[in-house]
Write a structure and sequence with these properties.
With about 80 residues, the chain is mainly α. It is built from five helices and no strands.
Length: about 80
């Protein structure tokens, strides 16, 4: 059975965060969301707003569409570390 979009997005976001060696605390502060909300996103329970998606892309120096490229074997593809 295919994973839900929320679950796929959460898994992708967590992979990017881990590849950049950021804790949930560091990442949530960088993006401007709570650690609890980040945890919910990474687990596929909640989904970020459009504004939060834009902020994530900006802070990670990625296009928002790249956050939804679930086929990438390696999660991070930006200069920030």
């Amino acid at each position: 059975m295919a994973l839900s979009l929320r679950r796929q997005f959460g898994t992708r976001l967590k992979a990017i965060r881990l590849e950049r060696e950021l804790t949930q605390e560091q990442f949530s502060e960088l993006v401007g969301i709570s650690v609890d909300f980040l945890s919910l996103i990474e687990r596929g329970v909640n989904a970020p707003s459009f504004e939060t998606l834009e902020q994530i892309g900006k802070r990670l120096e990625l296009q928002v569409r790249d956050l939804f490229d679930f086929r990438k074997a390696r999660a991070g593809s930006g200069p920030m570390k």
